[in-house]
Every structure is written in structure tokens, then in C-alpha cells.
Amino acid sequence: MEIGGRKLKSGETMAAESVTQSAPPTRSRGRITLLENPKIPFALALLFADAVLVSLIIAFVPYTKIDWDAYMSQITGFLGGERDYRNLKGDTGPLVYPAGFLYIYSAFKYLTGGQVYPAQILFGVLYIVNLAIVLAIYVKTDVVPWWALCLLSLSKRVHSIFVLRLFNDCVAMTLLHAALLLFVHRRWNLGLILFSGAVSVKMNVLLYAPPLLLLMLKAMDISGVLLALSGAALVQILLGLPFLVSYPVAYISRAFNLGRVFIHFWSVNFKFIPEPVFVSRGFAILLLAAHLILLASFAHYSWCKHEGGLCNFLHSRYVFMRMKFALFLSSSFSKKVGKSSSSSLRILNKEHIVTTMFVGNFIGIVCARSLHYQFYSWYFYSLPYLLWRTNYPTLLRLILFVGVELCWNIYPSNSLSSVLLLCLHLIILLGLWSSPPEYPYEENKPSSCKNK
């Protein structure tokens, strides 16, 4: 075939269609009703039981003063008209979160008057909302058995993070889980907006960005990906506009500082590393290299296995883009290219979306230089899913879950607990690596649905 006077090689055409090379396994799913799926009534009962538990915690367990007063001090400066991030400070130091944090906690201050008890009630509601979203994700996927959903309510540390410490991590992860639920329903553009909103509360959400970009390249064409990314960028610009027009350097350097070095004492995962090594640049570069290598390895050998590997998949996207561009060069060829283009995009199944997102984030957790206690909320809700994505026996899965929870409840952390946590993380990661990836696409469904 010829495009603009140039002959296209047959190998490139084959690369553009490489995502359809692997045949899906035979699997039939009927319509599942409420009574046929025990996950749904069990999830509803779990929500009710956990709501009662949260109420009892708020009523009888003393509040732990950590960051709420600092948040309120930072909010007071913002509401007072201060737009220089260098002057927004609290008891725990300067403000280091993007602008979305300020807007959300300003709303919290308005609703609670800055008082702890009503804030605990508000975060109790947030906890239940977040749990409901996570349960919806688990119910929509066919990975974790119904009885294992109770693991999502069994963390003493996560209950404490939400209703006894009121960390902004809770808000960021609730928005992230809501975005993931939208991705499961293939609402990519709206999901990207919520994802960007989560990033504007806390930067850790960016750990999900690499696997999310890969999923978008699978589910959308290049123009769709660019449009969705533009919407996410616009959210950041609009939220940060008051600071970008007044003190842009201060805002960007403080709110999006990726080079922060956390205090060694609070590290839960690398407490066994001597402090001089822990804070060194070499250790940071080593962890970053490990992070990138693991992401690339999982992308090549697992997430893109059915497309012939990461390189072949990216090449197919490149050829796909060229073929789309050919529409503007040859109107007589447009119908043929359009047909070939649509055949190279497939509908991702829910399990592949959730697995890729959770595993990508977990890789970042394993390679993080420092995990503080509130950071447990970054990946706790993915733990049951990840464990059931391995081929380990159920007893070992439960032992790993209990072991991780135990490490996060040892205060202060010590060399033994941090070594144990790292070993548990590596065992889980090894199980994920060794488990065969499922076919990533829906069966017998063309990509005719719109990317809303």
C-alpha cells in the first residue's frame, strides 16, 4: 500500500496489529445478579460493620495529635491571603503539598471549625466512602474470593491513619481509588481529572502514573491520550493558578519537590540502613534505578506480554500513529487505514487495569527510600488483590498479609521490623513476577465504545 507516495512495509503493518496476535482464552460469563454474587451482600454487611467500628473508635480511642494543627495553620495563612508558599508554614514545618490540599482542607476547616472531634467524624465518613469505592473495585473484578474482602477492614493502622490522625493521605487515596473505579468502567478522561485532583493533594499518587500511561496507550489512540493528559494538566494549572501568577518558582519548587529527604527515624522500611547511607545521593539513585528497571521488566514481560513485549507494543503504537496521520495525506486511503486503526485498539478487561495499576504502585512502594506510618494507606487496600494475583497458597497469602500489618504496627520501627517488611514486600513482588499474566483484553468486543 502507498501513503503519500511512500510504500509502507508489510512488517510495519503487522506491528500495528500486534496487539491482536494472542488469542484470548475461552471463558464465559453470564449476567450475575445480586443473589448469585456473594461479594455484593458481604460487601454491604462489611461496610455497615466497619461504620460501627469507626464510630466506636472515634468515641472511645483518644485522638493522636500529629498534623491536624499544622494543616490548620497552613490553611489559615492561605485564607488570610498569603500566596507565597515560602510563608505557608505550620507546627511541623513549611507547606509541601500542591494547591488541591489547600482547597480541600479549607473546606474541612469550614465544615469543622478547625475542631478535632467534628473532623474525626468527617474523616470517619471519608473512611467509609473510600472503603465503599475499594469494595466496588473488588466486586467488579474476579480475583479475590468474597470472604477475603474482610481483610480490607482488619487494619488497625489504617483505621488510625483515617480517624485518629486525619492525614491528607486519606483524601489523596480516596480520590485515587475513585479514579481507578472510573478506569475500570473505562471512563478515562473523567478518571484522569480525578487522578490529577489526587496528585494535587499529595504527590505519592504519581507512583500510579507509569502503569496508567501504559493502559491509556492500550485503550486509546494517541490523540485520545494527549487529550486526556491535557485535561489532567489543566486541572493542575487551574488549581495552582493563584500561586503560579504570584510566586511561581516558590510554588513549583515547594509543592512538587521530588528530591525531599525524609528523616531516618520515621522510616518503616529502611530503618536497618545506617543513616549516612540512608540520606546519601547514591542510595537514592540506586533505588530509582531499581524502580525503573522493575517497571520496565514488568511492562515488557507481564503487562505487554500478549502484545509481544514492551518494545513491540510501543512500535505498534508508533505505526498506528503514522497510519492515523496518513488520513490527512490520502483521502482515498482513509477508509482502509481507519479500519486497520480500529482493529489495533481493544477493550481492556477490568482485571488487567486493576492489576497493572496496583502492581505499578507496589513497585514504587518497594523502592521508596522512606515509608512513614501514614504511607501504609498508599497500598494497604491493594494488598489482598496483589496477594491473590500470586500463585501462593491461601495460607501463605494470609501469613504475608498479617506479617505486613504487624510490621506497620510496631512503633517505633526498628532494624528487625524494617528488614522483615522489606522481605515480605520482596516475597509478594516475586509472587507477582512469577504468576502468568492473564489475557488483557475483553473477548470478542471491538473498540467501538467511546473514551468518555
Automatic annotation (TrEMBL):
EC number: 2.4.1.258
Keywords of the record: Endoplasmic reticulum, Glycosyltransferase, Membrane, Transferase, Transmembrane, Transmembrane helix
One Gene Ontology CC term in the entry: endoplasmic reticulum membrane
One Pfam family hit: ALG3
UniProt main location, coarse: endoplasmic reticulum
Pathway info: Protein modification; protein glycosylation
Superkingdom classification of source: Eukaryota
Residue span of region Disordered: 1-27
Catalysed reactions, as listed in the record: an alpha-D-Man-(1->2)-alpha-D-Man-(1->2)-alpha-D-Man-(1->3)-[alpha-D-Man-(1->6)]-beta-D-Man-(1->4)-beta-D-GlcNAc-(1->4)-alpha-D-GlcNAc-diphospho-di-trans,poly-cis-dolichol + a di-trans,poly-cis-dolichyl beta-D-mannosyl phosphate = an alpha-D-Man-(1->2)-alpha-D-Man-(1->2)-alpha-D-Man-(1->3)-[alpha-D-Man-(1->3)-alpha-D-Man-(1->6)]-beta-D-Man-(1->4)-beta-D-GlcNAc-(1->4)-alpha-D-GlcNAc-diphospho-di-trans,poly-cis-dolichol + a di-trans,poly-cis-dolichyl phosphate + H(+)
Compartments, record wording: Endoplasmic reticulum membrane
InterPro entries reported for this sequence: Glycosyltransferase_ALG3 (IPR007873)
Membrane topology designation: Multi-pass membrane protein
Membrane-crossing residue ranges in chain numbering: 40-63, 117-139, 160-184, 190-217, 224-245, 282-303, 315-333, 353-372, 392-411, 418-435
Molecular-function GO terms, alphabetical: dol-P-Man:Man(5)GlcNAc(2)-PP-Dol alpha-1,3-mannosyltransferase activity
Enzyme category, top tier: transferase
Protein known as: dolichyl-P-Man:Man5GlcNAc2-PP-dolichol alpha-1,3-mannosyltransferase
Organism: Glycine soja
